[in-house]
Amino acid sequence: MLDLILLSSHLPSSNLPYLFSAFAVSWVVLFGYLFYVNRRQHEMKKEIARLQKVLEDDQPEG
Amino acid sequence: MTGLLGPIMVIVWKDVLLELRSRDLVVSVVVFGLLVVVVFNFALNNTPGRSEELAPGILWSAFAFAAVLAMNRAFVRDQEQGGLEGLLISPVSRDAIFLGKALTSLIFMLLVEAALLPIYAVMLDFSALSWMLILTIFLGTLGFAVVGTLFSAIAVQTRSREIMLPILFFPVLLPVIIAAVEATTRAVGGETFIGLGRWLPLIGVFDALFLVICPWVFRFVVEE
Amino acid sequence: MANIQSMEHTGSLGRLPSLKTALAAITGVMMLVDLYLIFMVAPTDSVLGHVQRVFYFHVPIAIMSFLAFFVVFIGSLMFLIKRTPKWDAIAHASAEVGVVFVTLALITGIIWARPIWNTWWTWEPRLTTTLILWLIYVAYLMVRSYAPSQSKGAIYAAVVGIIGFIDVPIVYYSVVWWRSIHPSPVVGPFAQADALDGTMAWILLYSFITFLFFFAYMVAERMELRKTEEALGRIRFTLRRKGR
Predict the structure, then answer these.
(1) Are the C-beta atoms of residues C244 and A54 closer than 8 Å to each other?
(2) ipTM
(3) Minimum mean pLDDT among C50-59, C140-149, C163-172: which range?
(4) Which of residues 1-60 of A touch C (CB under 8 A)?
(5) pLDDT tens digits, residue range B163-215?
(6) Helix, strand, or coil (residue C238)
(7) Residues 212-241, chain C, touching A (beta carbon < 8 A)
(8) Contact B169, B68 (CB under 8 A)
(9) To 10 degrees, what angle do helices B199-222 and B94-123 make?
(10) Interface residue C160 vs chain B (CB under 8 A)
(11) Residues whose CB is less than 8 angstroms from the CB of residue B77 and which lie 6 or more positions away in sequence, other chains included
(12) Residues from chain C contacting residue A55 (CB–CB below 8 Å)
């Protein structure tokens, strides 16, 4: 009974900011992680290409 | 089975002897246990009326923190003195090494807890001795020792060893702490084994489970 | 789970990107449909109002975080037994993606609790177990990065993965029993899932399958990143040997 009284003091429509933030946070976190993984992938590939070039430049002398 | 028991007892005997001779670890852990009780007493606003309610929780918080501290120190010292390497070179089975170390920690912790219990009984105002309480303390500490020894072996080899053990230890041992506090509450209230409910069996199952699993994974932790 | 196993059979680096792209495409489409279902089709809860729709994200994400840890467990177990790096890669990737999911589960759980029960947190069994799971994930990842070497890190992490997974059900029951002694009128978002009917139930199921694909895709991405990390490591090693 008491919880019913407590609940009715929260108008459902006024909770929309919570609805929004829950979904917004979900997107930010999920895509944030994917973005982070992709960026590291990109940086590493660049580094590999650079080091590969150093290796090739070495070949004639080595 | 005797093949296992022999090496275990040798390890335990050596470590316990080492401890009793230097005594610094025992004393510092007991003092630490006292400090935890004092801090929690004020932090939780422990008044005579609330003592009955808060005492088991304060007791087990102190035991848990003390256990982490003790096991951390024990393995660090072991690593510094090369004790573990010596054991690994010898043909002793990994299971025996693990059980030996865990038993050592168990005995050590039980001694510390035995020293602290009368002091707690006075400070937290509960009538200490009942067989159920002793059983609870034993089973709970066994859980701490078994899982704690495995995690200590890992933590001592990591970069941030002081922080690594608590981070591994507490989440996994939470059920034991919950159960131990509940069982202690009833034990202190004079309950019999049945009256303790499912809590001691929970700790029992936990202990049995990890007594089988931890030795098995320990060999992977110490292999070269 | 089926996707993880089919990923297992891809032998070369070449086939992984296209499986990944397929997963991304499927996930994208499914997610759009999911959002449509959640906002356009799902009925409005008569008591809780629109904010209840958070539950169509929170529950699947939370369940997924537990499933991810099951994958970590299997990967850890197989790695300790067989020692093939592939198992460690699966465990590691699932753990990283899993920690993202469990973090999100906690955050959405908190955002749910506030408007419904006027409190930020409830020590409800499922939410508490989710918190402990989060702590175990964090311990898993920490042990891996704080270990003295990569190979040791893999072993220690596998041990944590195994011990942690076995511990989770014990944690859950201990909190359930504790709760029955210390009850509270506040109920977490999971409890809603028990009292479901018709439309809500199958939208929830669909949402779960969507996140299953999303998880598989993210793990595929992470595993490809790991392959790149290994390639970088190899080339650095070669250069160091040549004295550069």
Answers:
(1) yes
(2) 0.90
(3) C50-59
(4) 2-3, 6-7, 10-13, 15-16, 18-19, 21-23, 25-26, 29-30, 33-34, 37-38, 40-41, 44-45, 47-48, 51-52, 54-55, 58
(5) 999 999 999 999 999 999 999 988 887 777 777 788 999 999 999 999 999 99
(6) helix
(7) 214, 218, 221-222, 224-225, 228-229, 231-232, 235-236, 238-239
(8) yes
(9) 140
(10) yes
(11) B25
(12) 235, 238-239, 242
Query: Which residue ranges make up each domain of chain C?
Result: 21-38+47-184+200-226
Cβ atoms of residues B133 and B188 within 8 Å: yes
Report which of B76, B163, A29 is spatially closest to residue C61, judged by C-alpha positions: A29
Helix/strand/coil for A3: helix
Domain ranges across chain A: 17-62
What rounded mean pLDDT belongs to chain C?
87
CB C179 within 8 A of CB B180: no
Residue C239 to residue A40: CA distance in whole angstroms: 21
Instruction: Identify the three-state secondary structure at position C147.
Output: coil
Structure token pair of residue B93: 């089975």
Question: Distance between CA C200 and CA C221 in Å, rounded?
Answer: 31
C23/C21 Cα distance (integer angstroms): 5
Q: Name every chain C residue with its beta carbon within 8 A of the beta carbon of B201.
A: none
Q: Is B197 left (phi over 0), alpha (psi -120 to 50) or beta?
A: left
Q: Are B56 and B185 in contact (CB under 8 A)?
A: yes
CB within 8 Å of A13: residues ≥ 6 apart: C49, C50
Total residue count of chain C as it appears in this document? 244
Going B136 to B199 to C72 to A30, the CA torsion angle's sign is negative
